[in-house]
Amino acid sequence: MTYLTRRHFIRKAAQLTGSGYTAMMALGLIPEAPARTLNLPGSGNGKRIIILGAGMAGLATAYELGKKGYDCTLLEARNRPGGRVWTVRKGTKETETEGTEQTCTFDEGQFFNAGAMRIPHHHESVIAYCRELGVPLESFNNTNEGAYYYSDGGTGPLASKRIRQRELHSDMRGYTTELLAKAFDQSALDLPLSPEDREKIIGYLVAEGSLDATRLYKGSSRRGYSVVPGAYDQPGKMADAPALLHLIEAGYLSPHFYNVPEYTYEQQTTMLMVPGGTDRLTDAFVKKIGKKILYGAAVKEIKKTENGASVVYQDQKTGATRELAGDFCICTIPLPVLSTIANNFSSDVQRAVDMVPYNDTCKVGLQFRRRFWEEDDSIYGGISRTNMDITQVVYPCSGYLGKKGVLIGCYNYGSTAERLGNLSLPDRQKMVLEQGGKIHPQYGKEFESCFSLAWQKIPYSMGGWAVYSPEARQRYYPAFLKPDGNIYFAGEHTSYLTAWIAGSFESARRTVEAIHERVQRGGASASK
Ligand code: PHE
User: Fold this and answer.
1) Residue 361 CA, closest ligand 1 atom number
2) Which residues contact 239 (CB under 8 A, 6 or more apart)?
3) Nearest residue CA, atom 8 of ligand 1?
């Protein structure tokens, strides 16, 4: 690792404390984003703005400031825009830190979103930009009752047997409502309820859990059939529900199988996606912004000056170093990268840059010669979940019935992502195929090619997204919310919508408003 050890330590600590599903779920406690289009009065009068990073925050600020007559230059270290919005297709190349070069060999038309893939329906700022830029949206199947749960290990008759999500959901609703109905029936719960109210609650529980006339859970058609109903003499045969004990023994009550997508605010239906790849949203911004983006421009130094800011960057093609001066600078560089760049930030900002941890996260795209998950398993989009390191298998929710397909054979976070990321590329592929093969035995025969990435090792990102503990939110976060001289900060890490595109957009809008307001008040001179 070449970046600062302080950051490295923080990342480790975050993984030990707050990167599992429970921490992910905690991200759900955030306010709804307001719907609006920026309509600012006045003009930017050609003031020069240097924007660092052409990810979603950088692109949105350049787009908005461009509308107001600012003269923006975007410095982007990579040779592509989008940052963590990145769609991997045939020919995509990447070399991780300490890694070897990968080139994607998927067929033409096949792809997966290595970064952002899904948009909550209440992330209005994202939807507003899609509307404004003419980018279509379609449904993203985040939940699929027909997808699998697979608990590896455990004991009993269900040990290491995949089950459909509808089965576990129905069974656990059934068994828990049965217990509750019993408790209410026996007045065992000390609640101030009349007998009629108790009956109403029991009626609700019976319906919620699909209990029988004796208020017991004996399975239901909700969980599916062992013989599906058909024509003529085929009424179908309901599958028997397993005993609660068997689900427990097999490991299906572990947090890996909690119903996160249905219950978490950001993951509830309907989730949306950009058809054809999330990078189409990036492209739409780039088309509007035009030639203002300098690619291959790696920032080496950021300085606030008396009346503005100055940035030193290195042209990655020629190795030449250049300096650019502006009235303002908007820095959207992810913190693990920013902490390696020379600067004269205030000590509050420097500390925050070093101390806010980022999550490790991996995605591995696998191309198969046949869409066996559709053909053999009736799975159209959605996500299978497992307690193995691969954590999730994300099925494509487009191109149904196509000949080939790419699914995401691993999407994990935290310590599991750290482990996978530390493997060589061939070892990652082996592990993902082995583990995924336990859920889908067809893997071995149908696999064609693989492209994997560990975001903590992707240059110029060096992490998935910022993870704030309540303490870090209190101590460090405020440093990013005000300008440091004429330098402003934007990006998902400067929002309460961390790990979402909406965080980048919301912070971009706030930054544009703040700069514009300052310019309207009287120019670029640094405020104290
Ligand atoms: N927004 C990212 C995703 O959709 C990261 C994330 C995962 C955020 C899970 C919250 C919960 O996968």
Assistant:
1) 5
2) 167, 219, 223, 224, 225, 226
3) 499
